[in-house]
Amino acid sequence: MLIREAVADDWPRIWPFWHRIVAAAETYAWDPDTSEEAARALWMGPGKRVYVAEDGFGAVVGSAYVTPNYGGPAAGIANAAFMVDPGQGGRGIGRALAEHVLTAARAAGFRAMVFNAVVETNPAVRLWTSLGFTVLGTVPDAFEHPRDGLVGLHVMYRAL
Ligand SMILES: CC(C)(COP(=O)(O)OP(=O)(O)OC[C@H]1O[C@@H](n2cnc3c(N)ncnc32)[C@H](O)[C@@H]1OP(=O)(O)O)[C@@H](O)C(=O)NCCC(=O)NCCS
What we know:
Elements: E1 2-5, H1 11-24, H2 36-44, E2 49-54, E3 60-68, E4 77-84, H3 93-107, E5 112-119, H4 124-130, E6 134-145, E7 149-159
Parallel strand pairs: 4-5
Antiparallel strand pairs: 1-2, 2-3, 3-4, 5-7, 6-7
Helix pairs in contact: 1-2
The structure holds coenzyme A.
């Protein structure tokens, strides 16, 4: 597997799994009906440093971005987001993307990383915890999960 910075032409290969993940409405606080154009702006818009994971055949199987979480005097705190093609989950792609992004964020000068809205029932919480993130707090009953009902959103943090 290869992890590299994304180029504009990667978007059509990110969009199918981006759409599948957001339409499922289980993990992201984004409109499940987000259009392709709006999705592209959310994922690859100004200020985002975007990465893709490619399998051995050159297929894009995951993507992530890093961006400042705040502005001005707090712009040294990063935010990141991750998606792996659901058909390729559980094979270590998410962990590899996360390790790559943590290293890249540190190299870019960010001092810490914050996730603003991690669904508390998302198995990804275990991944983030294993990478050194802690839960700073939880907004209770913030997210209407299609199976779990009303669940909390964690704010997670890690120094870089
Ligand atoms: C979260 C996500 C990026 C993880 O990618 P992945 O390639 O499936 O993850 P990995 O195979 O690297 O697994 C990493 C760890 O996460 C845990 N994990 C991740 N997804 C899991 C799942 N669906 N079920 C159980 N464990 C899971 C495992 O404990 C695994 O631990 P290990 O490395 O010790 O084996 C991917 O599942 C995804 O895109 N989910 C939908 C979007 C999302 O939730 N993004 C994160 C929002 S906070």
